[in-house]
Amino acid sequence: MTDVPFIDPTDAFAALGRIKLSETDLGGVLQKVADLAKRAIAGVEEASVTLVRGKDAHTAAFSGDLALILDEWQYREGGGPCLDAAAASETLLVRDLTGEQRWPVYIAQALESGVRSSLSVGLPVHESVTGALNLYARKPDNFDQDAVVLAQTFSGYAAIALANAHLYDATASLAQHLQAAMEHRAVIEQAKGIIMAERHCTPEEAFTILSRLSQTTNRKLRDIATDLVTGAHRR
What we know:
It is built from eight helices and five strands. The chain is of the alpha+beta class. Strand 1 and strand 2 (about 55-60) form a beta hairpin. The protein has a five-stranded antiparallel β-sheet, sandwiched between helices. It has helices at about 10-15, 25-40, 65-75, 80-90, 105-115, 145-200, 205-215, 220-235; strands at about 45-55, 55-60, 90-95, 115-125, 130-135. Helix 2 (about 25-40) packs antiparallel against helix 6 (about 145-200) and helix 3 runs antiparallel to helix 5. The protein folds into two domains: about 10-170, 2-Layer Sandwich (Beta-Lactamase); about 175-235, Orthogonal Bundle (Arc Repressor Mutant, subunit A), CATH 1.10.10.10.
């Protein structure tokens, strides 16, 4: 493991609040969550974020290969603390894997890797997506009640960051659609102007001509308009 400097949890929360969604994407937000969780919660060996949509689970971000391997073992077996925490949106603490009876195949693999305790906190991400913040430690009983509360608080900040990321993505997508619609509308207006000048007709008649061309050629109105405007510019 590569040692990373421990940071005060309040600094981690502040860092989450400073994430600029215009400068990163959802993957970047998730990676920040995993990295900060590893640095802000004492004894954490590695951290990851699981996202689940339907029956499809994947690790969206991880601080190191060990976290990714542990997550994927759970996905392969179809069960484990990260999946159960995500499904129920609850906190699932495994104090010592040597005494855990659930998920026997995964537990055996995790113990072989050297992990002795884990903490997964359910993360409501979106209407159709659930998730979990997963923390792994080599020490048994690494996560006391203070660590659990800290992880839950951290996950609350992370959930807000994720919700904002979804909102930003949706807003950005809407803005792109609106921009495209405005551009399409502009080229249609230009095409109408060309037809009006050539045929000395009204705007309504020009639009009717464009519509008929679209129907007879089975092409989109904006494509007909674009060709007309391009041809006029060439002439």
